[in-house]
């Protein structure tokens, strides 16, 4: 069976594109009752990047400042947002949900859109195609680039028992607005870690067994853009951010018809057991993967050096054997990633002990 994938329906791209959001939303506002929910990263509440004053909200709208600084999005957080919207508006649904932020806030916006139309807790819907009804119209506005969450069919949430996405066609944004100016104030380390997610998506997509002409077309170009962003001299920050935004988008599309690989498998273990954010967890894992990704790991280390990023080291010293084995459990269960990275016979080639040894080098 070939994947029959759905894409984001509409997209505006360019410096200043955020200014067009008001006009885009005006098409959703057909009666005086229609309202829009804006879910905005709390980091902008105090005026950073001038985003707060430019959110095109009207009197009837709801603006929610989502805190994603201490933790990645949770099912509880999404349930609370949904309940508070419906309580404020006496169960009248919004005409749209707009998420303005990084992968975390975009995932909250996607999940909120779905949960406004599906009963019970969002934990019930963590998995593939478990959502029963389409959500309300939703729009993503990234303020940090790399995850590809703006084009993906999943909204990753941490629930009481698992970290897993609400994954279905209805999760995909109806509209995205890619404005590189919004990335201006991301701290360097975070800009690097999230951007490396895109670089690693490309490397993993291109080097695995499922790669094909479609995934290569997007992955090869996105990889070049990442290399320019992190290695080329003489670019302005805005030029870098514009390239990275497109790399994030295209890297995400490359994965649509391919898969991530060993780095993401290890990274999920790190995030689950120690709560590392996706971008930094990927970087910690990629740094020990010369055997799988060869010269790409050398290039990654050169990028780290060039941008003076300090990657946490010697982490394994404080890890117990039980914690390492738990990470191996999570990593090895991601069979589709191993299958893509190593091939169908990966179980004959990769052992638990080899995976544990990789964790011990972190
Ligand atoms: P993020 O959204 O978690 O944000 C990281 C930090 O940067 C936060 O503290 C945030 O407040 C801050 N920030 C965001 N934009 C900023 C700006 N313009 N200026 C200053 N600070 C800013 O970061 P991310 O790496 O984009 O997203 C990671 C999340 O995305 C994880 O929760 C991960 O699970 C999820 N993810 C989702 C997908 C998907 O396909 N849905 C793919 C990969 C990762
Ligand atoms: Zn990723």
Task: Give short descriptive properties of this protein.
13 helices; Rossmann fold; 9 strands; binds zinc ion; binds nicotinamide-adenine-dinucleotide; 362 residues; alpha/beta; Dehydroquinate synthase-like, alpha domain; 2 domains; 6-stranded parallel sheet
Would you write up a description of this structure?
The protein is of the alpha/beta class and 362 residues long. The protein has 2 domains: 10-183, Rossmann fold, CATH 3.40.50.1970; 188-360, Up-down Bundle (Dehydroquinate synthase-like, alpha domain). It contains 13 helices and 9 strands. It has helices spanning 21-26, 75-88, 103-115, 188-207, 213-231, 237-256, 262-274, 278-286, 290-306, 321-332, 335-342, 346-349, 352-360; strands at residues 10-13, 36-41, 62-66, 96-101, 127-128, 138-142, 154-158, 163-167, 175-178. It has a 6-stranded parallel sheet, with helices on one face. A 3-stranded mixed sheet has the order 5-8-7. Strand 7 and strand 8 (163-167) form a beta hairpin. It starts with 9 loop residues before the first strand and ends with a helix. Nicotinamide-adenine-dinucleotide is lined by residues 41, 43, 48-49, 68-69, 72-73, 101-105, 107, 143-144, 147-149, 152, 154-156, 182-183, 185-186, 190, 194, 277-279.
């Amino acid at each position: 069976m070939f994947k029959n994938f759905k894409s984001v329906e509409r997209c505006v791209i360019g410096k200043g594109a955020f200014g067009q959001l008001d006009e885009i939303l005006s098409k959703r506002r057909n009666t005086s009752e229609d309202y829009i929910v804006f879910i905005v990263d709390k980091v902008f509440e105090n005026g950073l990047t001038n985003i707060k004053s430019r959110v095109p909200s009207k009197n009837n709208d709801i603006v929610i400042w989502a805190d994603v600084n201490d933790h990645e999005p949770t099912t509880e957080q999404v349930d609370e947002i949904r309940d508070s919207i419906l309580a404020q508006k006496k169960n009248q649904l919004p005409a749209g949900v707009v998420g303005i932020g990084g992968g975390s806030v975009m995932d909250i916006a996607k999940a909120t859109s779905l949960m406004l139309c599906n009963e019970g807790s969002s934990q019930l819907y963590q998995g593939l195609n478990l959502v029963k009804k389409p959500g309300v119209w939703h729009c993503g506005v990234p303020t940090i680039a790399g995850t590809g969450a703006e084009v993906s069919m999943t909204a990753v949430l941490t629930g009481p028992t698992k970290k897993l996405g609400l994954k279905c066609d209805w999760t995909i944004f109806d509209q995205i607005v890619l404005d590189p100016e919004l990335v201006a104030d991301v701290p360097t380390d975070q800009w690097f870690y999230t951007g490396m997610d895109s670089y690693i998506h490309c490397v993993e997509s291109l080097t695995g067994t499922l790669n094909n002409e479609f995934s290569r077309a997007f992955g090869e170009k996105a990889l070049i853009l990442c290399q320019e962003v992190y290695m080329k001299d003489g670019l302005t920050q805005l030029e870098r951010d514009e390239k990275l935004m497109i790399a994030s988008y295209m890297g995400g599309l490359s994965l649509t018809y391919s898969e991530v690989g060993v780095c993401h498998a290890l990274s999920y273990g790190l995030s689950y057991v120690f709560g590392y954010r996706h971008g930094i967890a990927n970087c910690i894992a990629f740094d020990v993967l010369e055997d799988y990704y060869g010269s790409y790991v050398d290039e990654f280390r050169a990028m780290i050096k060039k941008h003076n990023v300090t990657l946490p080291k010697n982490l394994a010293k404080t890890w117990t054997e039980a914690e390492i084995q738990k990470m191996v459990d999570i990593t090895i269960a991601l069979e589709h990633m191993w299958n893509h990275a190593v091939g169908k016979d990966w179980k004959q080639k990769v052992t638990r002990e080899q995976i544990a040894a990789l964790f011990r080098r972190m």
